[in-house]
Amino acid sequence: MKVESRVRQAEEKRTQLLHARLQRRAALEERTTKYLVQKVAWENKYRERVHSAILQKRTAAEKRRMALLEAEKKRAQGRLSQAQLAARTASSQRETDMNKSKEQLEEKLQRAKRQRAEYLKRRGSPHSFIYTGSIKHGDFLSRKLARCWRRFITSRKTTVVLARAFDMLKINEESVKPMPFEKLALSIESPTVLQTTRAFLDRLESRFILSQPSSSSSPENIDHLLKHLGAPKRRILSNSGGRTRVTPTKTARNSDVSKLPRYSPRAILCAYMILGHPSVVFNEQGEREKLLIESAKSSVKEFELLIKTILDGLDGACKLKQPMVDVISPGSSNYHESSAVVADRKKFRSQLASFDKAWCAYLYHFVVWKIKDAKSLEEDLVRAACKLELSMMQTCKLTAEGQPENLNDNLKAIRKQVIVDQKLLKEKVRHLGGEAGIERMEFALSEIRSKFFEAKGNKSPLATTITNIASTCSSGEYPISDIKENNTNNERPSQAVQSLFRTPSPPSESNTGDISMSNPMTMSNTVAERGPTENEQMVNEILHGFLADSSDNIGTVEGGFQEKVRETMEKAFWDMVVDSLRGDMPDYSYLVQLVKEVRDALHEMAPKGWKEEITNNIDLEILSQVLESGTQDIQYLGQILQYSLDMLRKFSSPAKEDEMKRNHNKLLGELIEHSKCNNRGPNSFVIAVIKGLRFTMEELKALKAEVSRARIQLLEPIIKGSGGVEYLRKAFADRYGSPSTPSVALHSTALWISTSKDIVEVEWNEHVNSFSVLPATDHAQPLVATLRSGHRVPVQQQSTVFATDGMGLPECTGEKLDKLLRIGLLQLISGIEGMQRQSVPETFKLNWLRLRSVQSQFQQVIVIATSLLVQRQVLMSVGSNIIPTELENATLELFNTLTELLDNFSDVSTDKIMEVMVRSSTSTSSSSNEITENMKQMLARIFLKSLQTDDTVFKKVSRSVYCAFRAITLGGSGAKGKKLADASLSRIGATKLTNRVVKAAEVLIRAATISEQVHGPWYDHLL
Questions:
Q1: Which of 78, 417, 684, 996 could form a disulfide with 678 if both were Cys (CB 3.0 to 4.6 A apart)?
Q2: Would you call 314 helix, strand, or coil by DSSP?
Q3: Cα 184 to chain center, whole Å?
Q4: pLDDT for position 323
Q5: What DSSP designation does 232 have?
Q6: Ranges assigned E (strand) in 392-465
C-alpha cells in the first residue's frame, strides 16, 4: 500500500511539474508574440513616417521646380516682348524713313515736272514760227489719227468691244452648269459663238505678244500641242463610187507653214463644257480626266478674271486713247486719268500673263486626253468595219475563196454599199492613225474573215461563232468586242469633243446616217450609243432588288468571257514580270511599279494620320537604289511585304483578321522555307518576290471588294428611297435632254408608246373580263383542239403552287400610264424575234438585258409546255393501255429534265429537246424497238410542227402563255394573279410552270414601276 501511495504521489507531483512547465512555456510564447506584434506595428509606423517624409520632400521639390520654370517662362516672355517691341519700333522707324524719302523724291519729281512744263511753255511761245508749225502739224496728225481710229473701230473693233461681245454670249462658269448638255453643245457649235470667240482670242494673242518685253525671252512655245488641235484636211466626196479627193488649194499646201493661233476657240469652249458637264463628256474618271478638269477650272477662272479686268478697267487699259493736245500737268484731271490708265494696263498685262500660263497647262492636259480619245475612236471605227464585213459575209454567204453563192441584185447592192461604207471608215481611220491605223484595220478584217471561214468549215453554231469572231477584232492592243459595247470597259470618244474639233466620228454617230439608211441590214451593227455609267447600272440594280453581280444570270455570257480574258491577261502580265527579273541584266521597273501600286492603294484607304507612316515604310527610292545596286536583298523586300500585310489586316474587318493572319503567316513561312531550300539563288529571289507580290495584290483586290460591298450596303437605303430615282432621272436628263422635247431624243420610246396605245384598252378589258370566269377554272379545262387523242389533263394536275394568303407585287390599278407600261413591256417580250438593244425604248436601255432574259423565259415556257403536250399526245396514241401513273411520271421526268437543261444552257437545240422527250417517254415502260422507233418519229414530226408559228398548236399554246404572263403582269404576283395565271396554263396542262411565269413576270412589274417613277415626266409629254 505504501508503495502504491508513493507511486500515486510521485505521479501527482510529476503532473504538477508538467503543468507548471506548460504554463511557463505558454507565458513565454505569449510574451514573445506580444513583442513581435509590437515590433511589426512600430516598423509599420516608422515606414509610414519615412514614406510621408519622402512625399513631402518630393512635393516641395516639385513646387520649387514649377516655380523655377514659371519664373524662367516669364523671363523668356519678357525677353520676347522686348524683342517684338524692338522689332516693331525698328519697322516703324524704317517705314517713317521710307515715307520721308518717298515724299522728298515725290517733291523733287513734281518740282522737276513743273520746271519742265514752264520751260516747254517758254519755248513754245505764240510768237515762235516753230510753235505755229507744230500746232498745224498736230492738228493734221490728230485728224488722221481720229480717221484711223474710226476705221479700226469699224473694221476690227477694240478689245473692250470684243470682250463685251463675248460676255453677251452668256457663256460663263455660272451659266453652263444648270444649262442642259444638248443646249450647251448647240450653243457652242453655232457660227456666231465661234466667230465671236475667235475674234476675241485673236486679239488677246496679239496683245499678249505685244506685251512681252523685248529684253525677255519669247513666250512658251506650244506649237507641238497646237498642231493636235488642227482640223483634218477637208475631203470632198465625188459623185462616182463614193471616192474621196483632196481639194488642192493653196491654203492646204501651206497649212503646215502657216502659224497656228495660240488660243483655240474650240478648246476654250470645250473647257466650259468639261466644267459644266464632266459626267457627260467623260465616260470614266481616271487620273487624266481629273487633271484635265482641274486645269479647265483654272483656265476658265483666269479667262473670266481677264474679261472682268477688261470690262472694269475704265476702257483705258484695253483701247487706244486718242492723243491729247492739252498739256498733262501734275494735279490736273487728265493727269490722274492717265495714271489710272497706266495702272489698269499693268493689271491687264499681269492677268493676261496668268491666263496664258493657265491656258498652257490646260492645253497640255487637253491634248493628252484628246489623243487617248482619238485612239478609242479609231478602235470603234475598226470594230464598225469588222461588223460590216461580218454582216456582209453572213448575208451574201461568201465562200473561202471570197466568192458569193447565188448573188442576186439585192445582195450585190448590199455588198457594194458595204464596200463604200468601209472606204469611208478607212479614210476616217487614216485621218486618225495614218498608215499604221490602216494596217491595224486591214489586219482586223483579215482576222475576222479567217475566223469566219474557219468556223464555217467546222460547222459551229452560228450564234456562238458570231460572238467568238466579234471578240477577235482588235485594234492595237485592245480587244474590240461586244463586251466593250455593253459598257464593261467603256471608253467611247465624246460626241461633244468630236463635234467641236471636227474629228471623224464612228458610224454610230449622226454623221453616218446615210450609211445606216442606205443599208438597213447593217444598221443594228453600226448604231451604238454612249452606254450608261457604272454608277447608273449599280443604282438601277439596287432599285430592282439585287446587285449587278447576282442579277438573275443576266449577262453571264459577257461576264464569263470577260473573266477568261482577265485571267489570260493577268497570267501574261505576271509571266512578263518574271521574264523581266531573270537574266544577266534584270529590269526592276515592273517590280518597283507594283510596289508603288501597293503603296498607293494602302495610302488611298488609310486615314490621314497613317499616310506619312506608309510612305516612310514603303520608300520607293530606297527600294530602287537597293535593286539597282545588284544585291537582291530579299530581307528588305520581306520587310515591305510584312508591313503591307500588317496594314491590310488593320484595314480589314475584325471577323477576318484571324484568318488573314493565318494566311499571311503561312505565306511568309513558305517563302522562308523556299529561300532556304534554294540556297538564295536568283530563281529563289524571283519566285519569292512574284509569289509575295501576287498574294498581296490579291488581298488588296479582296479588301477593295469588301469595302465596295460595305459602301453599297450603306448607300442601299438611300438609293431605295427617293435618292436612287432622282439620280437615274438626272442621268437620263443629261443623256436625252429635258422632258419638254422628248419626241426628238426618244424616238424609239415615242414609237413604242404610239404602237402600244392601240392595244392597251383591248388587253385591259380582256384581263378584267377573265376574272368573271375565274371560279369556273377550278375544274379541268379542255386541251388544245388539234390534239385529237380525246384525252384531258387529269384533275390531280391542277395548280398547288400558291397559298391563299400569298404576298406578292401589287396589281395594276388601272391608271393610264401604269397600264401602258406593263402592257407595252409584255408586247416587247412576247415577240418571236430576239430583242436587240437598238429596238428597245430609250427608257429601258438600262434594263435591256433584263428584258431579253424575260423574253428567253417566255419562249422557254412555250417550249416546255409544247413538249409536255406533244409527249402526252404521243404516249396516249402509241400506248393506249398506259396507266395514268406512268403517264404522270413520264411528264414529271420530262418537266424536270427540260427545266434543268434550259436553266443551265443558253443554247439548246431541238435535237437535244427531242432526245430528252424520247428518253423520258421510254423510261416508264419497256417497249419493243419498233414501237420506240415509231415513237421517236412521231415525237419529232409533231414537235417540230408544233413549233411552227403558223401552226394551231403553237398559236394556242403561245396565247395561253401570254395570258398567264398578262395575268401576273396586270394582276400582280399575289394569290389573285397566280390563280388567274394558273387558269390560263391549265388549258394546256402546264400548271407546273406557274412559278416560272410568276418569277419572270415580276421582273416586268418592277421594271414598269421603276420606269414610271424615273421617266414619268417624259411619258407625260409623249402621251
A1: 684
A2: coil
A3: 23
A4: 39
A5: P
A6: none
pLDDT at position 331 is: 44
CA-to-CA distance for 338 and 316, rounded, in angstroms?
A: 8
> Where are the chain's structural domains?
2-124, 144-244+259-368, 375-530, 565-736, 742-774+803-1022
What kind and span of H or E run contains 684?
A: helix 682-718
d(CA 1009, CA 817): 10
- Angstrom distance (rounded) from CA 909 to CA 530: 35
Cα–Cα distance measured from residue 893 to residue 900, given in angstroms and rounded to the nearest whole number: 11
Cα distance between residue 574 and residue 354, in whole Å:
47
- In the structure grid, which three cell numbers stand for residue 46, read together? 516608422
DSSP code, position 478 = E
577 CB-contact burial (10 Å; exposed 0-12 / middle 13-18 / buried 19+): buried
Query: What's the pLDDT at 322?
Result: 40
Q: String of b and e for 168-195 (b: at least 16 CB within 10 Å)?
A: ebebbeeebeebbbbebbebbeeeebee
Q: In sequence order, which residues have a C-beta less than 8 Å from that of residue 327 and are 6 or more positions away?
A: 117, 120, 121
The CA-based angle 500-506-507, given to 5 degrees, is 125
C-alpha cell at 799: 395548280
State the pLDDT at residue 34.
93
- DSSP 8-state assignment for residue 519: -
Q: Is 235 helix (H, G, I), strand (E, B) or coil?
A: strand
- Long-range Cβ contact pairs of 395-399 (< 8 A, separation 24 or more): 395/521
**Tell me, what's the pLDDT at 804?**
36
Axis-axis angle for helices 929-946, 910-922 (nearest 10): 140
In the beta sheet, which residues pair with residue 245? 236
pLDDT of 86 reads 92
Find residue 246's DSSP bridge partners. 235
Instruction: Please give the single-letter amino acid code of residue 137.
Output: H
In SS3 terms, 106-129 reads as HHHHHHHHHHHHHHHHHHCCCCCH
Q: How many other β-carbons are positioned within 10 Å of the β-carbon of residue 906? A: 12
Query: Would you say the C-alpha torsion 172, 173, 178, 184 has a positive or negative sign?
Result: positive
Q: Give pLDDT, residue 402.
A: 57
List all residues 6 or more positions away from 369 whose beta carbon is below 8 Å from its beta carbon.
288, 289, 292
* Grid coordinates given for 204: 488677246
What contacts 146, CB < 8 A, 6 or more positions away? 322
pLDDT at residue 537, as a whole number = 81
233, three cell numbers: 484636211
Q: What is the pLDDT of residue 927?
A: 61
pLDDT at 631: 61
Segments in the chain below pLDDT 50: 128-129, 231-257, 314-337, 461-528, 548-559, 776-806
Q: CA–CA separation, 611 vs 22, rounded Å? A: 82
Q: If you ran DSSP here, which 8-state letter would residue 394 be given?
A: H
Classify residue 491 as exposed, middle or buried by CB count within 10 Å of its CB (0-12, 13-18, 19+). middle
Which amino acid would we find at residue 824? G
Burial of 96 (0-12, 13-18, 19+ CB in 10 A): exposed
d(CA 1009, CA 144): 77
CA distance 961 to 997: 8
